[in-house]
């Protein structure tokens, strides 16, 4: 059976509206009638007196005047009509309409509506009007009011209200919108105003201001906690993470970190606030926040007060602090390394992490592929991290893992000493000395002879813990080169036992071999560690990449026969590459003066003869420079 839809004529609609009004409280009906009449007057009237009277009557509902309306009416106006009324005001911001307001009362009548009401509603209306309007008087006037809004501290009040109403259902939908609008205000204003943008909205001005407002909110939260009341930090944490992930962490944290450093020094509640502030940051933004705090924290004690045991509670934080900042990045200063590794060693609960970090660093340091292919700056960075980690560990901890550390030290020392770069070899020697000094006792310590420079002296100085009194000033921010300032602060420290042992023995004692007993080598046989290649392509690979002299020698002896036996394969692998590999390898042989050895290699275009350090090409006696003229 179909039911005919109910139809209401004009009389029925009026009766329904009248019944709704009769069920409302008289105070609410009064507010709605006054607001409706005010909207009509502001939109159509050109009477200056009527407009002024209307604005004053509506402003009473904000509670900013002596003749404030009852709280029930103010609540109705703020929750239901305030945003709509502000939109009407901004739509009337034209030159003709503004002339109707008394000049001496314009700011009081107009700006007061945005500064005395709920800040989150005023902020959203102003920002929406600015971004939607074209360059005009309306836009300019809203920009001026928004600038005054920031300077009056209303942004802090906005954040505080969101924190207070964290569990409120009507605020849940606005929270994400406010988060995006607050964090991106500088970008919105720059995109919309372009060359007419004001200095207040520049990132270098806005984000420090926002940092001060966030601190004021944290102080209110602290007072509330001390009073025994609950309060949520979630919105402040989300705002912190959102700003940092957008790339504005430095101007914000340069305000937050020094103040939090001072407040957490002797107040346990402030320490808990700081810990919760970072813990509540969403995981997708955690890395940018932690990286900024590590860069700006003045020492491991400060970092421990700011982060607490976050590294043990959050997997993302653990990855950033124990892996990414140490193994994947290498632009941080020495002070940042000392602060980070000192933080890991600060408490017993984090000691196991420091041991694991040291093992991972030594594994990378002892990887021959990493030594060959990573930049020397990253190798220096990892070397510093290893030496600093050793300084942070106790003797008992070192001895517990002595065997594994020795094994990793030997592997790393071998691949560093095999390098053809003096700087890499020198780094390996210094790190091996520092590691040997901690692992071994007595006279069983490694000692190398190398020329000291600023780099090695800095590494040796890092083998002692940095004194807490040297952390008076925060460390500098990003730096692409090694900070000499950081090393000078610890250069006065003792070089620990490594340098002491090296200085106690004279150079003549180190060079003397009179007391050494000759070892009988008559029964020794020459060992071959590799088999001869059987393909031309294998020969090319060995000649171009191998650093093993014996393997290169074996390859050079068989390459000629392989080329002659299989010309087709030779053409496929491009004979020219073989000649290039031969030239580079034979040049290395010349520099090492392989005496009493002779080789003959045919690269396809000409024949090379080697006897000791001298070479002949195609029967012509010359030195190794003739290799450059070989067409192969």
Question: How would you sum up the global shape?
Answer: elongated
Sheet with the most strands: spatial strand order: 1-2-3-4
| Average pLDDT, all residues | 79
Radius of gyration equals: 38 Å
- Binned strand content: under 5%
The overall strand count is 4
Q: Sheet bearing the most strands, described?
A: 4 strands, antiparallel
Distance between the first and last residues' Cα? 98 Å
Q: What is the count of helical runs? A: 34
Helix-and-strand structural type: mainly alpha
Which spans have pLDDT < 50 for at least 5 consecutive residues?
A: 1-6, 19-23, 474-514, 585-632
Topology:
Blueprint: H1 10-23, H2 26-44, H3 48-59, H4 71-91, H5 95-98, H6 106-115, H7 119-132, H8 137-151, H9 154-164, H10 169-183, H11 185-193, H12 203-226, H13 234-245, H14 249-263, H15 268-279, H16 286-296, H17 300-307, H18 310-313, H19 315-328, H20 334-344, H21 351-365, H22 368-373, H23 376-392, H24 395-400, H25 402-417, H26 422-439, H27 454-461, H28 484-491, H29 496-504, H30 507-511, H31 536-545, H32 549-565, H33 567-572, H34 575-592, E1 598-602, E2 607-611, E3 614-617, E4 620-622
Antiparallel strand pairs: 1-2, 2-3, 3-4
Helix pairs in contact: 2-3, 2-4, 3-6, 4-7, 7-8, 9-12, 10-13, 12-14, 13-16, 14-16, 16-19, 17-20, 19-21, 20-23, 21-23, 21-25, 23-26, 25-26, 27-28, 31-32, 31-34
């Amino acid at each position: 059976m179909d039911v005919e839809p109910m139809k209401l004529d004009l009389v029925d609609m009026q009766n329904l509206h009248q019944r709704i009004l009769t069920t409302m409280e008289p105070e609410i009906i009064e507010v709605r009638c006054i607001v409706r009449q005010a909207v009509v007057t502001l939109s159509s009237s050109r009477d200056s007196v009527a407009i002024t009277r209307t604005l004053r009557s509506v402003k009473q509902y904000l509670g900013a005047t002596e003749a404030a309306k009852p709280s029930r009416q103010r609540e109705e106006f703020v929750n239901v009509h305030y945003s709509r009324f502000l939109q009407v005001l901004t739509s009337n911001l034209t030159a003709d309409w503004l002339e109707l307001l008394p000049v001496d009362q314009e700011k009081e009548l107009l700006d007061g509506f945005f500064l005395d009401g709920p800040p989150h509603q005023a902020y959203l209306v102003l920002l929406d009007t600015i971004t939607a309007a074209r360059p005009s008087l309306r836009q300019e006037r809203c920009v001026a009011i928004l600038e005054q809004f920031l300077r009056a501290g209303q942004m802090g009040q906005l954040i505080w209200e969101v924190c207070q109403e964290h569990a409120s259902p009507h605020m849940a939908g606005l929270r994400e919108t406010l988060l995006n609008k607050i964090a991106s205000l500088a970008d919105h204003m720059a995109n919309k105003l372009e060359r007419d943008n004001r200095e207040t909205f520049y990132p270098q001005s806005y984000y420090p201001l926002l940092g001060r407002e966030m601190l004021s909110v944290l102080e209110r939260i602290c007072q509330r906690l001390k009073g025994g009341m609950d309060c949520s930090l979630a919105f402040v944490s989300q705002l912190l993470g959102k700003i940092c992930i957008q790339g504005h962490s430095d101007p914000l944290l340069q305000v937050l970190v020094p103040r939090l450093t001072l407040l957490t020094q002797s107040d346990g509640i402030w320490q808990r606030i700081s810990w919760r502030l970072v813990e509540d940051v969403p995981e997708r933004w955690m890395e940018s926040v932690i990286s900024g705090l590590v860069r700006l924290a003045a020492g491991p004690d400060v970092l421990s007060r700011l982060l607490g045991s976050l590294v043990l509670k959050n997997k993302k934080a653990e990855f950033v602090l124990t892996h990414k900042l140490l193994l994947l990045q290498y632009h941080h200063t020495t002070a940042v390394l000392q602060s980070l590794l000192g933080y890991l060693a600060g408490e017993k609960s984090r000691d196991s992490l420091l041991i694991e970090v040291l093992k991972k660093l030594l594994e990378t340091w002892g990887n021959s592929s990493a030594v060959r292919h990573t930049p020397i700056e990253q190798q220096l960075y990892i070397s510093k991290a290893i030496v600093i980690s050793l300084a942070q560990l106790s003797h008992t901890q070192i001895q517990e893992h002595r065997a594994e550390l020795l094994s990793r030290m030997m592997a790393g020392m071998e691949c560093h000493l095999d390098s053809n770069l003096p700087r890499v070899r020198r780094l390996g020697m210094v790190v091996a000395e520092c590691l040997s000094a901690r692992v071994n006792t007595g006279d069983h310590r490694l000692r190398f002879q190398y020329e000291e420079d600023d780099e090695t002296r800095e590494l040796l100085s890092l083998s002692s813990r940095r004194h807490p009194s040297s952390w008076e000033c925060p460390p500098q921010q990003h730096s692409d080169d090694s900070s000499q300032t950081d090393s000078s602060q610890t250069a006065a420290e003792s070089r620990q036992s490594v340098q002491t042992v090296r200085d106690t023995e004279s150079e003549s004692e180190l060079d003397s071999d009179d007391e050494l007993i000759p070892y009988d080598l008559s029964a020794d046989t020459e060992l071959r560690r590799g088999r001869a290649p059987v393909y031309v392509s294998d020969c090319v690979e060995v000649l171009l990449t191998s650093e093993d002299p014996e393997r290169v020698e074996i390859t050079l002896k068989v390459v000629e026969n392989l080329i002659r036996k299989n010309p087709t394969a030779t053409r496929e692998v491009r004979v020219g590459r073989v000649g290039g590999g031969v030239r580079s390898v034979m040049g290395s042989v010349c520099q090492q003066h392989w005496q009493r050895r002779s080789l003959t290699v045919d690269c396809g275009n000409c024949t090379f003869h080697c006897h000791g350090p001298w070479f002949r090409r195609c029967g012509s006696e010359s030195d190794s420079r003739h290799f450059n003229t070989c067409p192969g």
